[in-house]
């Protein structure tokens, strides 16, 4: 089981332990789908792994429901953590006399780091993070993709129409 834990570096208070969305899923299935997502696999990979373990088949629609729920709950948790991070950064800079300007912008020192997912050496996904230099907390992040989902869906739609048309002729 993969657990997420965030602790305060000063008082060691546990800010976040186990994701709360675990309770809303079928325990075993949800954890298996989550593990597949962490491994960078999709539905086809999940089906292959299940076949090796002699586990039941899961439709793409069901798999997508699980991944959607997991993704949405992860985003909620991430947003809560980032809100708390930004509050801490603002408090730390206030200690040295730096406060937000009239438009609410706080001038902070940051560093940026990013990486592409490299599992199987052909992933299309990457992430970049902006990290505050004083507190070393992530204050923002960006998930990147090497292709456009809109273009792909238009291509798939046109391909289906073409195939349907050619099959009828």
UniProtKB/TrEMBL annotation:
InterPro entries: Mutator_transp_dom. Residues 5-151 form the Mutator-like transposase domain. Pfam families: Mutator. It comes from the Eukaryota. This is Mutator-like transposase domain-containing protein. It comes from Cherax quadricarinatus.
């Amino acid at each position: 089981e993969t657990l997420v834990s965030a602790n305060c570096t000063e008082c060691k208070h546990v800010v976040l332990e186990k994701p709360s969305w675990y309770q809303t899923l079928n325990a075993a299935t949800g954890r298996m789908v989550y593990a597949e997502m962490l491994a960078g696999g999709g539905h086809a990979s999940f089906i292959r792994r299940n076949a090796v373990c002699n586990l039941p088949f899961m439709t793409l629609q069901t798999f997508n429901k699980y991944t959607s729920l997991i993704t949405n709950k992860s985003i909620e948790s991430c947003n809560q953590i980032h809100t708390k991070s930004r509050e801490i950064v603002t408090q730390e800079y206030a200690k040295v006399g730096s406060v937000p300007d009239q438009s609410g912008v706080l001038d902070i020192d940051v560093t940026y780091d990013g990486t592409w997912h490299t599992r199987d050496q052909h992933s299309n996904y990457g992430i970049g993070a902006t990290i505050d230099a004083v507190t070393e907390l992530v204050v923002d992040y960006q998930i990147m993709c090497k292709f456009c989902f809109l273009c792909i869906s238009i291509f798939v739609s046109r391909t289906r129409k073409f195939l349907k048309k050619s099959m009828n002729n």
